[in-house]
Amino acid sequence: MDERLRIEVIDSTRDRGAEGMRVDVFTLGARARKLCSGFVNADGAVDAPVLATDAITPGEFEVVFYIGDYFRSRLPVDNENESPLLDTVPFRFTITGTQPYLLPLRVAPAAFSLVPARDFVTAA
Q: What is the CATH number of the domain that holds 41?
């Protein structure tokens, strides 16, 4: 499937895909609405068929990453009182053309960063 918007998330603490992290995608502006929810797969890519459709047109978007839920689900039982610093993290951006877009992200319990696509390696 050729994706119009590809979202990839790497767990920096494990250096592999943030498998199971929930991600929501919204279009903003006058016709704001939720486009889809998806989950990161083992390769680090978000599985959401709408990301390959005409719903991804030029305009403003917001992607919400559920980083806190992801890391809380991975805490050892003896550390369950600890909580990640980050919880729900929104990221807004604008698509200006019809070419495919890549949103590569690295996450940790207390940090997240966009990674230049040329430096992004999806771990299997």
A: 2.60.40.180
